Input
Amino acid sequence: MTTAHESPDATIVIAVSVRDLPPRDYQASEEAGTLWQLAVLPALQSRGLGTLLIRTAEQRMRNRGRRGAELAVEENNPRARALYERLGYAAYARKPDAWDEEGPDGAIRRHETMCVLMRKGL
Output
């Protein structure tokens, strides 16, 4: 809410931290860590949160002795792919993928898509 003498352009500062996953919530390969299901709410995009998530995950992978990171990005998501490329990931293959997701009406639907597989050495 803004009063007559306040500026409509306000700055809100929020502290952000990235929680670690407990070991029961991930499985890592011997060589590479896998990034999956990363998302930033549209209202919070372009503020560095995706970069923070990825760089934090990469550091944790290095700390666990992984030599690389891998991910899959939907072909119809050029914005995310551009972020990954900017952070050093390179495409090496394509593969179909599918998962169940809940719609706004609560119904579960199967989402089918084509993904680009990307990797980066750590």
About this structure: The mean pLDDT is 87. The longest helix spans residues 49-63.
